[in-house]
Amino acid sequence: MKVSFHHAGIVVTDLDQGIEFYKKFLGLEDSFPLEWSLDKPGASEAVINLKDSAATGMMLSGDGFNIELFEYTAPEQKGDPASGRPCDFGIRHIAFEFDDIHEAAKRLVDAGGSMHREPVELGTLLAVYCRDPFGNIIELMQPVEETA
Predict the structure, then answer these.
(1) For strand 120-122 and strand 54-61, is the pairing parallel, antiparallel, or unpaired?
(2) Distance from C-alpha of 94 to C-alpha of 132, rounded to nearest angstrom
(3) Mind listing the domains of the chain with CATH numbers?
(4) pTM of the complete model
(5) Which of 116, 106, 99, 136 is closest to 8 using CA atoms?
(6) CB 55 within 8 A of CB 71
(7) CA distances from residue 79 to 13, 43, 83, 92, 96 in whole angstroms, order as listed
(8) For residue 147, is pLDDT > 80?
(9) How far is 85 from 92, CA to CA, in rounded Å?
Protein backbone atom coordinates (compact mmCIF):
# COMPACT_ATOMS: atom_id res chain seq x y z
CA MET A 1 0.00 0.00 0.00
CA LYS A 2 1.38 3.38 -1.02
CA VAL A 3 0.96 6.17 1.53
CA SER A 4 1.82 9.83 1.11
CA PHE A 5 1.00 12.94 3.09
CA HIS A 6 -1.46 15.22 1.30
CA HIS A 7 -2.41 18.19 3.48
CA ALA A 8 -2.89 19.73 6.89
CA GLY A 9 -6.22 21.44 7.49
CA ILE A 10 -6.21 24.64 9.51
CA VAL A 11 -9.31 26.55 10.64
CA VAL A 12 -8.71 30.31 10.78
CA THR A 13 -10.77 33.30 11.85
CA ASP A 14 -9.92 35.28 8.69
CA LEU A 15 -9.48 33.30 5.47
CA ASP A 16 -7.89 36.13 3.49
CA GLN A 17 -5.33 36.74 6.25
CA GLY A 18 -4.60 33.02 6.46
CA ILE A 19 -4.07 32.73 2.71
CA GLU A 20 -1.80 35.78 2.72
CA PHE A 21 0.27 34.46 5.66
CA TYR A 22 0.86 30.93 4.31
CA LYS A 23 1.57 32.17 0.78
CA LYS A 24 4.04 34.78 2.02
CA PHE A 25 5.70 32.49 4.62
CA LEU A 26 5.90 29.26 2.59
CA GLY A 27 5.55 30.49 -1.00
CA LEU A 28 2.40 28.42 -1.53
CA GLU A 29 0.10 28.83 -4.52
CA ASP A 30 -3.70 28.74 -4.72
CA SER A 31 -4.77 25.27 -5.79
CA PHE A 32 -8.57 25.43 -5.59
CA PRO A 33 -11.26 27.18 -3.54
CA LEU A 34 -13.63 25.30 -1.23
CA GLU A 35 -17.09 26.40 -0.16
CA TRP A 36 -20.39 25.11 1.11
CA SER A 37 -23.39 26.80 2.67
CA LEU A 38 -26.24 25.93 5.00
CA ASP A 39 -28.66 25.73 2.07
CA LYS A 40 -26.18 23.89 -0.22
CA PRO A 41 -24.05 21.60 1.95
CA GLY A 42 -23.29 19.14 -0.84
CA ALA A 43 -21.19 16.23 0.36
CA SER A 44 -19.14 18.38 2.73
CA GLU A 45 -21.28 17.70 5.79
CA ALA A 46 -20.99 13.96 5.20
CA VAL A 47 -17.22 14.14 4.80
CA ILE A 48 -16.55 16.28 7.88
CA ASN A 49 -19.41 14.84 10.01
CA LEU A 50 -20.70 18.27 11.06
CA LYS A 51 -24.35 19.11 10.43
CA ASP A 52 -25.56 22.63 9.75
CA SER A 53 -22.14 23.89 8.75
CA ALA A 54 -20.97 26.48 6.25
CA ALA A 55 -17.44 27.49 5.31
CA THR A 56 -15.19 28.99 2.71
CA GLY A 57 -11.69 27.75 2.18
CA MET A 58 -8.67 27.44 -0.05
CA MET A 59 -6.32 24.57 -0.78
CA LEU A 60 -2.79 25.94 -1.07
CA SER A 61 -0.10 23.88 -2.81
CA GLY A 62 3.58 23.64 -2.02
CA ASP A 63 6.46 21.42 -3.06
CA GLY A 64 5.06 17.98 -2.20
CA PHE A 65 2.53 19.16 0.41
CA ASN A 66 -0.65 21.19 0.73
CA ILE A 67 -2.28 23.38 3.38
CA GLU A 68 -6.07 23.56 3.48
CA LEU A 69 -7.50 26.66 5.16
CA PHE A 70 -11.12 27.06 6.29
CA GLU A 71 -13.12 29.90 7.79
CA TYR A 72 -16.44 28.63 9.13
CA THR A 73 -19.53 30.83 9.26
CA ALA A 74 -21.61 28.06 10.87
CA PRO A 75 -21.56 26.77 13.45
CA GLU A 76 -19.85 29.46 15.52
CA GLN A 77 -16.11 28.86 15.74
CA LYS A 78 -14.86 28.23 19.30
CA GLY A 79 -11.53 27.92 20.98
CA ASP A 80 -8.30 29.84 20.93
CA PRO A 81 -5.29 28.03 19.46
CA ALA A 82 -3.01 30.63 21.06
CA SER A 83 -3.96 29.30 24.49
CA GLY A 84 -3.26 25.69 23.49
CA ARG A 85 -0.04 24.29 24.94
CA PRO A 86 2.26 21.92 23.04
CA CYS A 87 1.35 19.18 25.58
CA ASP A 88 -2.44 19.44 25.17
CA PHE A 89 -4.35 16.65 23.42
CA GLY A 90 -4.83 16.73 19.67
CA ILE A 91 -2.68 17.72 16.75
CA ARG A 92 -0.59 20.47 18.27
CA HIS A 93 1.78 21.59 15.53
CA ILE A 94 2.89 21.31 11.94
CA ALA A 95 6.59 21.24 11.15
CA PHE A 96 8.54 22.42 8.13
CA GLU A 97 12.18 21.70 7.33
CA PHE A 98 14.27 24.49 5.83
CA ASP A 99 17.84 24.80 4.63
CA ASP A 100 18.06 28.21 6.37
CA ILE A 101 16.02 28.36 9.58
CA HIS A 102 16.93 32.00 10.24
CA GLU A 103 15.60 33.08 6.83
CA ALA A 104 12.47 30.98 7.46
CA ALA A 105 12.00 32.65 10.85
CA LYS A 106 12.32 36.09 9.26
CA ARG A 107 9.76 35.17 6.60
CA LEU A 108 7.37 33.84 9.26
CA VAL A 109 7.58 37.06 11.29
CA ASP A 110 7.40 39.27 8.17
CA ALA A 111 4.26 37.39 7.12
CA GLY A 112 2.57 38.08 10.48
CA GLY A 113 3.62 35.13 12.65
CA SER A 114 5.48 35.26 15.96
CA MET A 115 8.46 33.61 17.63
CA HIS A 116 9.14 33.27 21.35
CA ARG A 117 12.91 32.74 20.93
CA GLU A 118 15.67 32.05 18.44
CA PRO A 119 16.15 28.45 17.17
CA VAL A 120 17.80 25.98 19.56
CA GLU A 121 20.28 23.23 18.65
CA LEU A 122 18.91 19.71 19.29
CA GLY A 123 21.74 17.37 18.28
CA THR A 124 21.56 17.32 14.50
CA LEU A 125 18.74 19.91 14.25
CA LEU A 126 18.07 23.55 14.87
CA ALA A 127 14.43 23.91 15.88
CA VAL A 128 11.93 26.34 17.36
CA TYR A 129 8.17 26.46 17.85
CA CYS A 130 6.46 29.58 16.48
CA ARG A 131 2.85 30.71 16.01
CA ASP A 132 0.88 31.72 12.94
CA PRO A 133 -1.32 34.85 13.22
CA PHE A 134 -4.14 32.68 14.65
CA GLY A 135 -2.05 31.05 17.39
CA ASN A 136 -1.44 27.68 15.68
CA ILE A 137 1.98 26.20 16.47
CA ILE A 138 4.45 25.92 13.59
CA GLU A 139 7.80 24.21 14.11
CA LEU A 140 10.76 25.39 12.05
CA MET A 141 13.57 22.83 11.60
CA GLN A 142 16.98 22.78 9.94
CA PRO A 143 19.40 19.84 9.84
CA VAL A 144 22.89 20.76 11.04
CA GLU A 145 26.15 18.96 11.69
CA GLU A 146 26.30 17.61 15.24
CA THR A 147 28.87 19.43 17.36
CA ALA A 148 31.11 17.69 19.88
Answers:
(1) unpaired
(2) 11
(3) 7-74 (3.10.180.10), 92-143 (3.10.180.10)
(4) 0.91
(5) 136
(6) yes
(7) 11, 26, 8, 14, 24
(8) no
(9) 8
